[in-house]
């Protein structure tokens, strides 16, 4: 049977008149129904590990907007927790983790095959979604890329310049590389189980890829993505994979070819016409409208939606933002964007 899900058609390389669309962080604090379910769960992590409620918040934006894809509700930092790191969220500040400063911290972590009991509720969320999603909606599973997850595990928090991770890389490369290796192997096992549970596509979020330069980018952003995608495709032939090496700049060029990704997600610091010429030539791209337009709205939102659609109209494209929709976005602006896109 010919593929009917629009997102899968774009990932297979088809150019569509109206691109499929979803938004990073589409289940999030800008939606009143998300805030209500999160309050019911108690806190963010309790929501992630409550399969029924995590499935519910995943479905909320699908009901409200009819997006072409749903992304599993979870977080990239659940994997460090499954490996034995401590994890908590400071209200209004973001994630906090126990830190890894050297070989001792690394040795205390569990192995790649020891994560599945901890992740069982996440796999159950995927199974519920595979049952409950509308038949035209694609289910995306995800994980953080090893470098991005490592930056949080090393620093114990988000950092503007990832300095602690760069310092460990320079000062104790063996420990740093062993951590990247463990995360690469664990991510293969984690994503593989998501696929077995019903995820149809996987996306690898490398939010801090832009701070890796030169050879470091090849070794710690490109190579782990290549290994993860190769292993997943070997186990699950034909599995479409989206890679998001955020703020990679010139390194977006050739990234899909080098890693085997079916689609490269673009952040909004790159120009859409440039990306169409340099990146979309290799296949599907996703992106890349600036998230702040979902706050400010108006004619600028309509114009920019149409400009990005037109820039990528000669090849396979998935419309999205260049980063997550923010808590201060106006839910009405999502309708404005969809109307401008779909007509
Ligand atoms: O996109 C989705 O809707 C799927 C779910 C998802 C979340 N986080 C839920 C979430 C996904 C794919 C992520 C990825 C993620 N998590 C990344 C990579 C993408 C990116 O944003 O760069 C990163 C770096 C994280 C780590 C993380 N989680 C941070 C730094 C924070 C705090 C910042 C913030 O927005 O509050 C989170 C919390 C988080 N993850 C929220 C959501 C909906 C907000 C939590 C809340 O409800 O308070």
Automatic annotation (TrEMBL):
Pathway of action: Porphyrin-containing compound metabolism; protoporphyrin-IX biosynthesis; coproporphyrinogen-III from 5-aminolevulinate: step 4/4
Annotated residues for binding of substrate: 25-29, 75, 152, 207, 323
A Gene Ontology molecular function term of the record: uroporphyrinogen decarboxylase activity
Subcellular localization: Cytoplasm
Coarse class of the protein's main subcellular location: cytoplasm
UniProt-annotated site: Transition state stabilizer, residues: 75
Role, per record: Catalyzes the decarboxylation of four acetate groups of uroporphyrinogen-III to yield coproporphyrinogen-III.
Protein name stated in the entry: Uroporphyrinogen decarboxylase
């Amino acid at each position: 049977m010919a593929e009917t899900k629009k997102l899968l058609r774009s990932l297979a390389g088809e150019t569509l008149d109206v691109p499929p669309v979803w938004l990073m962080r589409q289940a999030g604090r800008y939606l009143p129904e998300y805030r209500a379910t999160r309050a019911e769960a108690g806190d963010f992590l309790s929501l992630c590990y409550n399969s029924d409620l995590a499935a519910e918040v995943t479905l909320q934006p699908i009901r409200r907007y009819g997006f072409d894809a749903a992304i599993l509700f979870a977080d990239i930092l659940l994997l460090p927790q499954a490996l034995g790191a401590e994890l908590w969220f400071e209200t209004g500040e973001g994630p906090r983790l126990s830190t890894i400063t050297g070989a001792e911290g690394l040795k205390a972590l569990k192995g790649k095959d020891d994560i599945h009991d901890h992740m069982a509720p996440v796999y159950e969320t995927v199974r519920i979604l595979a049952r409950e999603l509308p038949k035209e909606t694609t289910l995306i599973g995800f994980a953080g890329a090893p470098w991005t997850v490592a930056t949080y595990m090393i620093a114990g928090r988000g950092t503007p310049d990832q300095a602690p991770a760069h310092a460990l890389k320079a000062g104790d490369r063996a420990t740093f590389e062993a951590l990247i290796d463990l995360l690469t192997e664990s991510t293969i096992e984690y994503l593989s189980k998501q696929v077995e549970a019903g995820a149809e596509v996987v996306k690898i979020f490398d939010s801090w890829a832009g701070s890796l330069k030169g050879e470091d980018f090849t070794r710690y952003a490109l190579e782990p993505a290549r290994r993860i995608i190769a292993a997943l495709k070997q186990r699950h032939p034909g599995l479409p994979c989206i890679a998001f090496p955020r703020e990679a700049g010139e390194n977006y060029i050739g990234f899909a070819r080098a890693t085997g990704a079916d689609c490269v997600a673009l952040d909004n610091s790159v120009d859409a016409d440039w990306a169409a010429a340099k990146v979309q030539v290799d296949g599907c791209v996703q992106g890349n409208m600036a998230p702040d337009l979902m706050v400010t709205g108006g004619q600028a939102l309509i114009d920019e939606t149409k400009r990005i659609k037109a820039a990528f109209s000669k090849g396979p494209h998935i419309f999205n933002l260049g980063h997550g929709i923010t808590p201060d976005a106006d839910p009405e602006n999502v309708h404005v964007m969809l109307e401008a896109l779909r007509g």
